[in-house]
Design a protein that fits this description.
heterodimer, A: about 140 residues, 6 helices, B: about 140 residues, mainly alpha, globular
Chain lengths: ~140, ~140
């Protein structure tokens, strides 16, 4: 096989084949940027979260419900949860891919990670909205 | 081409803990990975907290009681550290992304600062929590 033939073969390789052969599948950059940008968004959101947790830690149910009925709190808490889950889904996937070698185990864990993160986001945001939108006598 | 194997080449794995020599930058890296796993659990706990709040006063009291138990407090203490360490570490990574802070002495110093910030912020947060009678 001449050098030229080798080059021709390379042209027909799929992205998956390239990735398996340790070439780039051309999807890594978006993952990296997603992780970095969500991490930056999380910095102020988690500091607000720590402040909010200190404010609500002793509060009984009805007081916390009134707190959640404030639009700024419901929106910031939803953003905190979503940004955290986007960030953590990406970050935990990298940890799984780095340390788990067996294909089926690795795939099951990566999919499980995605499902747990999406489920936590759906349950969390629905619950926040339910509390924020059904409370009476807010403001 | 010296590679005569027909099979796929082995993917390189990340080096596991036992092959590393312990130093501050490496400790920060693995500590951050630990914190990421911890925060993953923390995000699920937060979603559960919102669900308990939506479920009503009894469910909420039960959930907060669980978080207020000794094991719950230990978990929350860990989460507090993980939150603050992740904030500091993200800032450090942002400088790295801009190509700054890679000199060994700088990297050692920023790593130590990230750990120190997380420890101090965790203590301050829990002292405030204690001050308002949270435990």
């Amino acid at each position: 096989m001449s050098k030229n033939d080798q080059f021709q073969v390379q042209q027909f390789r799929t992205p998956l084949s390239r990735a398996r052969g340790m070439g780039a599948s051309r999807h890594g950059v978006s993952h990296f940027i997603t992780e970095r940008v969500s991490g930056l968004a999380l910095a102020p959101l988690t500091l607000w979260g720590a402040y909010a947790a200190l404010k609500q830690v002793r509060a009984p149910h009805d007081v916390v419900v009134q707190w959640m009925a404030q639009p700024v709190n419901a929106v910031l808490l939803s953003l905190l949860l979503i940004a955290a889950l986007v960030h953590l889904q990406s970050a935990v996937q990298v940890v799984i891919e780095d340390y788990i070698e067996r294909f089926t185990t690795k795939t099951a864990l990566v999919i499980g990670n995605l499902f747990v993160c999406v489920l936590a986001g759906a349950v969390g945001v629905f619950s926040i909205l339910k509390v924020a939108l059904t409370v009476t006598g807010a403001h | 081409m010296t590679d005569t194997s027909r099979g796929l080449p082995e993917r390189p794995m990340s080096p596991h803990l036992q092959v590393w020599r312990w130093h501050i930058t490496m400790a920060c890296s693995i500590l951050h990975r630990g914190c990421i796993i911890g925060l993953w659990v923390g995000a699920v706990i937060l979603a559960g907290w919102a669900a308990a709040l939506a479920a009503g006063p009894d469910a909420y009291a039960g959930y907060v009681g669980l978080l207020g138990s000794p094991i719950g407090k230990l978990v929350l203490l860990g989460e507090t550290f993980a939150v603050f360490f992740n904030v500091a570490y993200t800032l450090r990574q942002t400088f790295w992304d801009a190509g700054k802070g890679f000199a060994p002495r700088t990297a050692d110093m920023t790593g130590a600062m990230a750990i120190a910030f997380a420890v101090v912020a965790t203590i301050v947060t829990w002292v405030i929590a204690g001050g308002i009678g949270a435990f």
